[in-house]
Specification:
The protein is of the alpha/beta class. The chain is built from 15 helices and twelve strands. The strands form three sheets. A five-stranded parallel β-sheet has the order 6-5-7-9-8, sandwiched between helices.
Length: about 350
C-alpha cells in the first residue's frame, strides 16, 4: 500500500473526525508501522480508546482489553504490540508468556489499577477470611495473582453469581461494585483503610474505593443537560460510571457491548459516556449513525499511545512487558477461571 492509498482510506473514514492537515502525516506513520509489522512478525492490538488514526489504520485486532488479550493468546506472531495501557499489556503477557509483549509508552498507567495493591488485597482477605475475591481485569498482575477470579465490565454480575457465595469481595472499582450490588440485590460496604472489625457489618458485597478518573467525571446533570438539548438521544454509560449516571442512562455496558448496541439499533442519535476517542471511532465506523460529539473527557494514560511511539516500539523493541513467573502463573489462574465462566455461559 502506498502513502496515497493509506491517506485516501483514512480520509474516507475520518474526514469528520481528524483534520485533513494531519491525515497525510498520520498516513505516512501508519504505513511505516504496517511495514515494520511485516518485518518483525508482529501483531498490533488496538483498544477502543485509541486515537482514530491509529485505531483505523494499524490495529490488526480491535476491542476491549480481555478480548484483545485472548486474540494475543491465539496469535502465531513473535511480537505483540498492545496499544492500550499497562495492565492490558500485562494481561496479554499473562496469557502469552512465550511472546514478546510491547507497550508503546513507557508509563501508560491507569488510575483505577493504581488504586489497589497486592498488599491491600492480602489485608482484605485477612479481615474477611474465606471470602472469595473477584478482581476486575483493570488491575495489575500482582493484584490478579491475589484473586480467585477476574471479571470484565460485561460479565461482572455473572462472575459474582457464579461463585454461589453469600459474601464476595469485589475489587477495585467502587462504582462498578455498587452497580453489581444493585443488579444482584446485595448489600455493599466500602471498608475504610482504618476499619478493622469486619464482624460489625452485615454485608454481601465488599468493595474498594478505586475509581476511573474518566468515568467518575460524568454526572446526572450532564445527562439532563444533553436531554434538554436532544430529547431523542439514546445515552449509553459504561459500568465504571456512578450508579446514579447508569440509572439515568438508557443502556449500560462494556466498551464492546456499547459498540454492538450502536451497530444493532436505530436511534436518532447516540451519546456514549466513556472515553471520547471511542465515540470518534464508532462515528467513523458507522457513518450512517449520529454520534454526539459533545464530550471532552480524555484518558491521559490512553492518550500516551500514539502512532509515533507505536512505530518506535517496533523499531527499537520497546517497552518490553515482563511479569515474574510466580505472579504470572497465579494471575493466569484467575484470568482463565473467568474465561471458563464465559465459555460455560454462566
Amino acid at each position: 500500500m502506498s502513502v496515497d492509498v493509506m491517506y485516501r482510506d483514512l480520509k474516507a473514514k475520518l474526514h469528520d473526525v481528524v483534520p485533513d492537515v494531519e491525515l497525510r502525516y498520520k498516513a505516512e506513520l501508519a504505513l511505516e508501522v504496517n511495514q515494520l509489522k511485516q518485518e518483525k512478525n508482529a501483531v498490533v492490538l488496538g483498544h477502543s480508546y485509541m486515537e482514530p488514526a491509529l485505531y483505523h489504520s494499524v490495529a490488526d485486532y480491535k476491542g476491549d482489553s480481555l478480548e484483545l488479550s485472548r486474540k494475543a493468546a491465539e496469535t502465531d506472531k513473535d511480537i505483540i504490540v498492545f496499544c492500550g495501557v499497562r495492565f492490558m499489556a500485562e494481561t496479554a503477557k499473562i496469557l502469552s508468556p512465550s511472546k514478546t509483549v510491547l507497550l508503546p509508552a513507557k508509563e501508560a498507567g491507569c488510575s483505577l489499577a493504581a488504586s489497589i495493591t497486592a498488599e491491600d488485597v492480602r489485608q482484605l482477605k485477612a479481615r474477611f477470611p474465606g471470602v472469595p475475591v473477584v478482581t476486575y481485569v483493570n488491575t495489575y498482575a500482582e493484584v490478579k495473582a491475589e484473586s480467585d477470579i477476574c471479571c470484565t465490565s460485561s460479565n461482572a454480575r455473572a462472575v459474582v453469581e457464579s461463585l454461589h457465595d453469600d459474601t464476595v469481595i469485589f475489587l477495585p472499582d467502587e462504582y462498578m461494585a455498587r452497580n453489581v450490588a444493585k443488579e444482584t440485590g446485595r448489600h455493599i460496604i466500602i471498608p475504610t483503610l482504618s476499619s478493622q472489625n469486619s464482624t460489625e457489618v452485615d454485608c454481601q458485597l465488599i468493595g474498594w474505593h478505586g475509581r476511573c478518573e474518566v468515568h467518575e467525571k460524568f454526572t446526572v446533570q450532564d445527562i439532563n443537560r444533553v436531554r434538554q438539548q436532544f430529547p431523542d438521544v439514546v445515552i449509553l454509560a459504561h459500568p465504571e460510571c456512578s450508579p446514579e449516571v447508569v440509572g439515568a442512562s438508557d443502556y449500560s455496558g462494556s466498551t464492546s457491548a456499547m459498540i454492538r448496541y450502536v451497530e444493532q439499533t436505530e436511534a436518532p442519535r447516540y451519546l456514549l459516556l466513556t472515553e471520547c476517542a471511542m465515540g470518534e471511532n464508532i462515528a467513523a465506523a458507522n457513518p450512517d449513525k449520529e454520534i454526539l460529539q459533545i464530550c471532552s473527557v480524555r484518558c491521559p494514560h490512553m492518550n500516551q499511545i500514539t502512532l509515533e511511539n507505536t512505530r518506535d516500539a517496533l523499531l527499537y523493541t520497546q517497552y518490553v512487558i515482563e511479569v515474574p513467573e510466580e505472579i504470572r502463573m497465579r494471575a493466569a489462574q484467575a484470568v482463565k477461571h473467568m474465561i471458563a465462566i464465559n465459555a460455560s455461559g454462566a
